[in-house]
Amino acid sequence: MMRGGWHDRPLTHPGRGSHPEGGPHGAHPTAPCRARHVPAGPRPMTAALQSPLGAPVTFERVSKRYGDALAVDAVDIDVAPGEFFTLLGASGSGKTTTLMMLAGFQMPSSGEIRVGGRAITHVAPAARNVGMVFQSYALFPHMSVAENIGFPLRMRRAGGAARDAAVARVLSIVGLEGLGNRYPRQLSGGQQQRVALARAIVFEPPVLLMDEPLGALDKHLRAHLQVEIKRIQARLGLTVLYVTHDQEEALTMSDRICIMRDGRILQTDSPEALYDRPADTYVAGFFGESNIVTARADGDGHALFGPARVPLPAGVRPGAAVDCAIRPERISLAPAGAPASGGALRVPATVTAATFVGDYRRYELALADGTPLSVREALRETRAGFTPGAAVTASWAPGAMRFFVDGRAVA
């Protein structure tokens, strides 16, 4: 195969250029030039189905500077073997830079990174033996599906029979049996992404890195592949570090989620814990949606949420400003004057907007003092919803609320 010509350039999308092999198989365009070492050929893929592949990953006080700009600020991360771990954040949060340092495409300014207990901070990308899947797919256009998938094994000098067997097995795993002779241009976007995933796991890496791999797909296909990727990860026992800005994607796929902002980790926890027990007001607003009303604690352990007196946690001092948060779906609506349910907080309100969104209705309310409130009501039965101008009573359980002082959660 000729080197240096257009034949060796991967099929990619503008603005997301990447080498198809990334850390496991070759240097990324942004990676420093280093001596290359290609690890030995893999064990048979059948062994992967008998014992988990995943290795633990550790970041210890890892930082990355670009001149005076601190992109990643002394992060500590511990990922368990076989865990699906997601880095979630807005643009500029540092999530992709963190992943690129693990892949070896960026060098940390300080700190240490370990995979399987082995320090890899200064190891060349090709010698780290981690798999990488990019949003751009990065497939070789002149190679068939089977040749694309088998390329990492060729670089590892695996024998032809072993390579063919491994390729056939991963084609089955990703649901592409019978398509090995096709070319990337003959595949849909979802099929191309499956090929990229198959190529990343064919050599059985202990860690798989995924950088917004579903971002270019439509919503329906993205939802389907979320389930498929999670199924494959669980079947093989892979450790996965996944980068996304899509909250629903993170909720669907992750064992744990790490929320980043301005290069720092704000909170790492299970999806349920992040949603129900956000550590600060940023997480409460970023991960899902919250109604947050600022109130003043009185001397009796309560605060006013609109006209309702809300009991506060014992640790809130009298006179403190308190942010009271409630998720829109935790609020129930009833016509004004409907009988009260025991123990619920109740506030009168007026519907200002109503939107039908298929499986739920979204309402915007105004409380008597003008405080706005959003409500998300699941459609469990076919009945007419409330219309703008309707007088309603909004109610919720006191335990569904979360309270923050100086931006931090109080229990």
Automatic annotation (TrEMBL):
<keyword id="KW-0614">Plasmid</keyword>
<dbReference type="GO" id="GO:0043190">
    <property type="term" value="C:ATP-binding cassette (ABC) transporter complex"/>
</dbReference>
<dbReference type="InterPro" id="IPR008995">
    <property type="entry name" value="Mo/tungstate-bd_C_term_dom"/>
</dbReference>
<dbReference type="InterPro" id="IPR017871">
    <property type="entry name" value="ABC_transporter-like_CS"/>
</dbReference>
<dbReference type="Pfam" id="PF08402">
    <property type="entry name" value="TOBE_2"/>
</dbReference>
<dbReference type="InterPro" id="IPR050093">
    <property type="entry name" value="ABC_SmlMolc_Importer"/>
</dbReference>
<dbReference type="GO" id="GO:0016887">
    <property type="term" value="F:ATP hydrolysis activity"/>
</dbReference>
<dbReference type="GO" id="GO:0015847">
    <property type="term" value="P:putrescine transport"/>
</dbReference>
<protein>
    <submittedName>
        <fullName>ABC transporter ATP-binding protein</fullName>
    </submittedName>
</protein>
<keyword id="KW-0547">Nucleotide-binding</keyword>
<feature type="compositionally biased region" description="Basic and acidic residues">
    <location>
        <begin position="1"/>
        <end position="11"/>
    </location>
</feature>
<feature type="region of interest" description="Disordered">
    <location>
        <begin position="1"/>
        <end position="49"/>
    </location>
</feature>
<dbReference type="InterPro" id="IPR003439">
    <property type="entry name" value="ABC_transporter-like_ATP-bd"/>
</dbReference>
<dbReference type="GO" id="GO:0005524">
    <property type="term" value="F:ATP binding"/>
</dbReference>
<dbReference type="Pfam" id="PF00005">
    <property type="entry name" value="ABC_tran"/>
</dbReference>
<feature type="domain" description="ABC transporter">
    <location>
        <begin position="57"/>
        <end position="287"/>
    </location>
</feature>
<keyword id="KW-0813">Transport</keyword>
<dbReference type="InterPro" id="IPR003593">
    <property type="entry name" value="AAA+_ATPase"/>
</dbReference>
<dbReference type="InterPro" id="IPR027417">
    <property type="entry name" value="P-loop_NTPase"/>
</dbReference>
<dbReference type="InterPro" id="IPR013611">
    <property type="entry name" value="Transp-assoc_OB_typ2"/>
</dbReference>
<keyword id="KW-0067">ATP-binding</keyword>
<dbReference type="GO" id="GO:0022857">
    <property type="term" value="F:transmembrane transporter activity"/>
</dbReference>
